Amino acid sequence: MASCGALHSFLFEYDTPRIVLIRSRKVGLINRGVQLAILAYVIGWVFLWQKGYQETDDVVSSVTTKVKGVTLTNTSSLGARIWDVADYVIPPQGENTVFVMTNVILTLNQSQGHCPEVPDDKTECQVKNNSCKSGYVSTHSNGIQTGECVSYNSSVMTCEVFAWCPVEDDNHIPKPAFLQAAENFTLLVKNNIWYRKFNFSKRNILPSINSTYLKNCIYDAHTDPFCPIFRLRQIVEAAGQNFQEMAVEGGVMALQINWDCNLDRDASHCVPKYSFRRLDSKDTAHTVSPGYNFRFAKYYRNSDGTESRTLVKAYGIRFHIVVFGKAGKFDVIPTMINIGSGLALFGVATVLCDIFVLYCMKKRYYYREKKYKYVEDYELVSINGGRGKAELLPPLTPERF
After folding, report:
1. What was the pLDDT predicted at 14?
2. How many Cβ atoms are within 10 Å of 57's Cβ, its own excluded?
């Protein structure tokens, strides 16, 4: 019988919304307040701030760079030497990046042979109690240990290695930085962008910039915000860092170019906006392997036919050119979609008012009786004995209703 009742309820009941007009100042204020909030959201946020009437596209970009600058150093090992772009920009070209060497440790005239390892707690040894193991890679990864304990100087014994000799000693980083004058070097950034959907292209060297201006300008956020030539010191300082401190052990900087454009306006309003930040962590509590450095070597063939090299451990600043942006232009489809979505949100006001009336007001039970009413049809069908025979019931009288 229970299953028949459930089947009867499923087959022969129908719910229809009922409109109840409630004359209440409190409910009316809530309804109008919610409607105004939705209207402000649709107009203010969706259309004015987010520009919901526009089709959008992400930027496609290409970047090339050029560094300029010359400096002179004078040391006991190298003497007087000029350093230009070919010496300190490594490699000459990168993909949206450029590395400028600011500090260096040079190990000159290395040749393959046997020599003592640089001494430390792990490499020092004694002839009587030899801790050097033959065939093992040295502690500093400079070569292969021979198993011999040899003199490093008159007072220190270390393990002998077969390596490029003399081995590199990088325990003492030059301070101040070897190329401290690099703060005055300049970086030219040439950036071309394209918005595929709108077939719109532009570059950061704006049409108003001529060759005379380009030869003399240096970027300044206030006086020359569209000059594409940047002094390295200014890039670092704009990110809140000190160039001379960063130059000692190196680091990673980002030069960001923002191309957010409203293409409903004239193309002259679509201009780049530059910003700067340091990408590598500078946390005084975590000083393991700070900065940025790498090694490379320059090889030579001696007059006797033997090979030698100069090992370079280069510290410097790696500049990443990060280009991002979005363009928008009026289109009917997103406009209609957002208008329709906004109109649909007005149904939220009705739902919130229903919740307030039916569950929060003092007369909620009275309103609930008025909102929900159960009506029986005068042609109710009765399922007779499960045989599918239907009986037509008489119309309902007012007393039964």
Report:
1. 62
2. 19
Give the Cα separation of 339 and 55 in Å (integer).
Answer: 14
pLDDT of 94: 83
Residues 232, 186 contacting (CB under 8 angstroms): yes
Tokens at 154, concatenated: 């008159």
Helices (H), 109-249: 211-216, 232-238, 243-249
- Phi/psi at 281 (nearest 5 deg)? -75, 135
pTM of the model: 0.78
Q: Residue 72: pLDDT above 50?
A: yes
For residues 67 and 187, give the distance between their C-alpha atoms in angstroms, rounded to a whole number: 5
Question: Is the CA virtual torsion 97, 100, 104, 106 positive or negative?
Answer: positive
> CA-CA distance, 31 to 255, in Å (whole number)?
50
pLDDT at 245: 94
CA of residue 8 relative to chain centroid, distance: 61
* Structural tokens at position 374: 């159960």
Residue 123 burial (10 A CB sphere; 0-12, 13-18, 19+) = buried
pLDDT tens digit sequence for 105-162: 999 999 999 999 988 877 678 766 677 888 888 878 889 999 899 988 888 889 899 9
> Buried b / exposed e across 85-117, counting CB within 10 Å, b at 16+?
eeebbbeeebebbbbbbbbbbbbeebeeeebbb
Closest of 293, 192, 230 to residue 68, by C-alpha = 230
Rg (CA), the chain: 39
- pLDDT score, position 121: 72
Max intra-chain CA distance, the chain: 126
Over residues 203-210, the mean pLDDT reads 94
